[in-house]
Design brief:
It contains 16 helices and 24 strands. A hairpin with a 2-residue loop joins strand 15 and strand 16. The longest helix is centred in the last third of the chain and has 68 residues. The protein is extended, with a radius of gyration of 34 Å.
Length: 641
């Protein structure tokens, strides 16, 4: 097509028709998006898309946002815009199962009453300024006279400093409304974590405080150690210090995980919680270490159940006699050793452990291994039997030689797994008499059993912790008694981490797979660097000025005294001269400080001018040169042809 036909009436009509058709096609495909951001900030995770695509009931999202009260707070307004953009993307992906509305609760309005009914309260942003609403409600889209009659979940405050977990928090809210019934946690353990009986004291023991916290949010059922199956109603299986489990129970755990059951396992090479004392005060050893033969290997995990981790950097100080000493086997894991990009460990400050073990990914593992908690590099593994026989923790220092490596203490394992029982369900050994043999065989043949799975139904998630003492009260909480009630006073975040882990698992594999998002805020790092350099210079100049001021005051005090140390009480020429000298130095220093500030402004403005030049001039020039080069090459090609 030549230029004459292109710009003819027919050609222009064809161009216009093609443009209208293209606009119509783009308008008919509202879900078509191109995300060019570095961290895919405007792209939803696959887990989010799976959750909203399988919603069982319509859900309404209500974003309570004081838009009018934040007109002069640009940071809040920009974050409010990003929240709305993400919510609209989620609604768009739901194919009509979600609806979305923004509510501005004006003072003394019905919208403000609605926010109060859902438990959202205004938060002051600036001192003396108007408090603002910034919360989210997910509620089943049903007609009800009162807001409280609807199944709903509330996020009272959407925190800007938790922006990377915004998508996760929104989907967690939606998942809870979609499945409002309390999930069932199955507890499999021989520890007295849920209460028991102390034969030495001859009295019952109370359940650990962690179980009080779990029961506030979940229904807890015990799983018998001698059972051959796991109840189908159990949503999350919590295994604590497994020891000597039967083949039938190991098979039941294997198939539970294979069918997509969420699992959290606490292992330990030396469970201090099993240590007790006789009436004479002698220690009764803890006994065997944790073991899950075959299952850990199938999950792609290695656990050395005969080695205890000692850490010189994270060691807690314990009281021994009259002086506290560092205990290399009792660790206080600080936040810089907790994965801050994971919702389970984010914002936790301290996790206390005792005689913990280590876990690692097997060499030929097909699953992903995501560490949640790690040790420092100043560590050493100690034989568990030697550690258990130790009476004085100072002995650990005598043989301590750092291996200069970091170990994983807790991790998330995720992926498609193979069964640890490829031959199928193990046969239970049953002792029967000769007369009963035939009827029993017939009964076994007629027993209905679940289908044996050799490969998991999709991706599974297992959380592993190499310590059970993390759950015991002594490691994280003090308990006070008030009017017959137990009042917890936590001094570590052990309980928070366990609840976070259960919340993460309760949403299923889709919710736990939602990645932490990048941050939308992209500061000018070069400008920030210039500001830091200027601040350093300002602090240096001010420090020098204060030093000279102190010296001048000392000189003035000395000049204002006679030979006997008495105050002269009048300004002598020497004093006046010293004052004049200091005033000149102070003026010069202030001039220097202003020069530093002025130079900072000049540098920032010059940087801005350079960026404008690149954007407005350099890029067009490069494009022009590229177009000229292409034209030249085409001309040369035509000449040669």
């Amino acid at each position: 097509m030549n230029s004459k036909s292109l710009f003819s009436r027919i050609g222009l009509t064809a161009i216009a028709a093609a443009t209208v058709l293209a606009v119509a096609i783009i308008s008919a495909l509202p879900s078509l998006r191109i995300d060019l951001t570095e961290d895919n900030l405007y792209s939803l995770s696959d887990g989010t898309r799976n959750i909203v695509a399988n919603l069982e009931t319509p859900i309404e999202l209500m974003f309570f946002y004081s838009e009018s009260a934040t007109e002069e707070i640009p940071q809040i307004r920009s974050y409010g815009t990003r929240v709305q953009e993400l919510l609209r993307e989620v609604v768009l992906a739901s194919n009509g199962r979600l609806s979305f509305s923004v509510i501005d609760p004006e003072p003394f309005s019905e919208d403000e009453d609605l926010a109060t009914e859902f438990g959202i309260q205004p938060v002051p942003v600036t001192q003396g300024g108007q408090a603002v609403y910034f919360g989210l409600v997910a509620a089943q889209d049903e007609s009800a006279e009162l807001a409280l009659d609807r199944v709903s979940e509330t996020l009272p405050l959407i925190r800007p400093d938790q922006e990377q977990f915004l998508e996760y928090e929104i989907m967690k809210l939606i998942s809870k409304v979609n499945n409002p019934d309390l999930q069932v946690v199955g507890l499999l353990t021989e520890l007295d974590i849920d209460g028991g009986f102390d034969p030495v004291a001859g009295q019952a023991t109370q359940q650990w405080m962690i179980m009080d916290a779990i029961r506030q949010l979940y229904t807890v059922r015990r799983v018998g150690l001698t059972s051959n199956e796991i109840d189908e109603e159990i949503d999350i299986l919590m295994i604590v210090h497994p020891q000597g489990l039967s083949e039938q129970m190991l098979y039941a755990i294997d198939q539970f995980v294979m069918r997509g059951g969420k699992t959290m396992v606490f292992l330990d090479p030396n469970a201090d919680s099993m240590v007790s004392r006789t009436q004479q005060g002698n220690l009764i050893p803890a006994g065997m270490s944790s073991e899950l033969p075959g299952l850990l290997e199938a999950w792609g995990v290695e656990f050395a159940n005969d080695m205890v981790l000692t850490d010189n950097e994270l060691a807690l100080r314990v009281s021994m006699g009259q002086r506290p000493i560092a205990h290399l086997g009792m660790l206080g894991v600080q936040r810089n050793f907790l994965t801050q990009s994971d919702i389970i460990t984010n914002r936790l400050e301290m996790i206390n452990l005792s005689s913990t073990g280590v876990i690692s990914q097997a060499e030929e593992a097909t699953t992903s291994f995501e560490p949640l908690m790690v040790s420092s590099n100043d560590t050493m593994l100690v034989n568990a039997s030697k550690y258990g026989d130790m009476a004085d923790p100072s002995v650990l220092f005598d043989d301590f030689v750092s291996e200069e490596r970091s170990f994983t203490i807790a991790a998330r394992v995720r992926g498609v797994i193979e069964t640890a029982f490829p031959e199928g369900r193990p046969i239970a050994e049953v002792e029967v008499s000769d007369e009963e043999a035939e009827p029993v065989e017939e009964l076994v043949e007629e027993e209905v059993v679940a289908e044996h799975l050799t490969r998991s139904n999709g991706e599974v998630t297992v959380l592993l912790f190499a310590d059970t003492d993390i759950l015991s009260d002594r490691m994280w909480v003090q308990i006070a008694q008030f009017l017959g009630q137990r009042i917890p006073r936590p001094f570590a975040n052990n309980g928070d981490m366990v609840i976070n882990a259960l919340d993460n698992l309760s949403g299923g594999a889709d919710l736990s797979s939602i990645r932490s998002r990048g941050t939308y805020s992209r500061p000018f790092t070069r400008v920030m660097q210039l500001q830091r350099q200027a601040d350093d210079r300002l602090r240096t100049e001010e420090a020098e000025l204060l030093d000279r001021l102190a010296e001048t005051e000392a000189s003035l005090a000395e000049l204002n005294q006679d030979e006997n140390g008495e105050l002269i009480g009048q300004i002598t020429p020497e004093i006046q001269s010293e004052i004049d000298r200091f005033n000149e130095e102070m003026l010069e220093t202030r001039r220097s400080l202003r020069d530093v500030q002025y130079q900072l402004t000049e540098d920032i403005e010059q940087l801005g001018a350079d960026l404008k030049l690149i954007n407005t001039a350099l890029i067009p020039v490069l494009l022009t040169l590229l177009a000229l080069l292409i034209t030249y090459l085409r001309t040369q090609r035509r000449k040669s042809a």
